[in-house]
Amino acid sequence: MPVMTAQEVMDLIPNRYPICYIDRVEELVADQSISAVKNVTINEPFFQGHFPGNPVMPGVLIIETLAQAASVLILKSPAFYKKTAYLGAIHQAKFRRMVRPGDVLKLDVKMLKVRAKTGSVSAVASVDGDLVCQTELVFIVGERDGSDMKER
């Protein structure tokens, strides 16, 4: 039984189809860690162009999926209730394996540090126990409408 369903995830983060990638949260330890799942299917819109005849999930979308799992972890903290977690930086991203239709992408994210409005997580994606991607993500937490964020 999932800790959170896809609908509960959408109630928490602002992402919607076609860019809401978390299908369920399997484990969640508040302010510490999360394990979530993305079921990769052939009817994903990005497979139409990446790559026809050889469908591979783009690395940037694997990072986005990890960032969404991290957002759930961050926003489940009472300190960030009804806020939005924006991706601030991606450090040392490494890709080890391709992700294809039919794969179940497992996302494991651990909180490293949190400050007033920023923090970092370690994030790992795997398929069938094989490492797909590992990275450290930095996030900035702001208002849902972004009104407190400065344009860069």
From TrEMBL:
InterPro entries listed in its UniProt record: FabA_FabZ, FabZ, HotDog_dom_sf
Main location: cytoplasm
CDD domains xref list: FabZ
Highest taxon above the source species: Bacteria
Keywords (A to Z) from UniProt: Cytoplasm, Lipid A biosynthesis, Lipid biosynthesis, Lipid metabolism, Lyase
Subcellular location: Cytoplasm
EC identifiers of the protein: 4.2.1.59
NCBIfam families named among the record's database cross-references: fabZ (TIGR01750), PRK00006.1 (NF000582)
UniProt similarity note: Belongs to the thioester dehydratase family. FabZ subfamily.
Protein name per the record: 3-hydroxyacyl-[acyl-carrier-protein] dehydratase FabZ
